[in-house]
Amino acid sequence: MAYREHVKILEAGIQIWNRWRDTDPAIAPDLSGLNFTKKNFAGINFRMCDLRQCVFNECDLRQVNFQKAYLHSASFIKSDIRDVNFSKADLTLVKFIDVLLEGCIFVDAILNEVDFSNRIMKQFDFSGANLLRAKFRSSDLTKSIFKQSYLGEADFFMANLSQVDFRGANLSGANLSNAYLKDALLEGAIITKANFDGAILSTRQKLSMMFPFLPFK
Predict the structure, then answer these.
(1) Residue 207: how many CB atoms within 10 A of its CB?
(2) What are phi and psi of 9, to 5 degrees?
């Protein structure tokens, strides 16, 4: 439940809110469960806020700082979230539907069971993120980065993974069937029980997966 005093400060406007956050950045404001539909929060500092189950539908959220925010089960439907910083945020079960995502940062974020299917997400950075059972079905992830990420049971069916960096990632049980993986970097990735049926791989990739102890160039 949202803390009334924190809600009052937010209602005073973005400038006053950001100034308050700057004076005491250690505070973790509680705004949980609120409905912010059609609000303009562009540039606001929601760092470390408790925003679980909040509704951000049809909002302008460009350049918002959600770093380390708790956003479990929040909703972003038809919102503009370009250039948002979600690093180290908990986005478990968050709904991203018909949103503008360009430039978002997801480094070290928790994105368990989030659905990113049927999207163009080129050059996104998911380094160190936890993406258990996340869905990227038929998405274009060209040149995106998943270094050291946990992708257990993630679904990349028919995804374009050209030049994607999976180095050191854990892909245990992931579905990569019919995915395009040419030029993807898989060195050091854990692929136990991953499904590569019908995946498009280069000869070098196939050999390196069969004989991981040998250096293929």
Answers:
(1) 13
(2) -65, -40
Write the pLDDT tens digit of every residue in 2-52. Answer: 799 999 999 999 999 999 999 999 999 999 999 999 999 999 999 999 999
C-alpha–C-alpha distance, residues 169 and 5, integer Å: 42
Tokens 């993120």 belong to: 129
For residue 215, pLDDT over 80 is answered with: no
Across 14-33, b (16+ Cβ under 10 Å) vs e yields beebeebbeeeeeeebbbbe
CA distances from 135 to 145, 155, 178 (A): 16, 5, 14
Element (H, E) at 97: strand 95-97
Helix 14-23 × helix 4-11 angle, to 10°: 130
Burial call 53-88: b when 16+ CB within 10 Å, e when fewer? ebbbbbbbbbebbbbbbbbbebbbeebbbbbbbbbb
Give the Cα separation of 43 and 5 in Å (integer).
21
The reported pTM is: 0.90
What phi, psi does 15 have (nearest 5°)?
Answer: -60, -45
Query: What domains sit in the chain, N to C, each tagged with a CATH number?
Result: 1-105 (2.160.20.80), 116-217 (2.160.20.80)
Asked if residue 217 has pLDDT above 60, the reply is no
The token duo for 163 is: 């030049």
- Please give the backbone phi and psi of residue 92, each rounded to the nearest 5 degrees, phi first: -55, 130
Q: Report pLDDT digits (tens) over 40-65.
A: 999 999 999 999 999 999 999 999 99
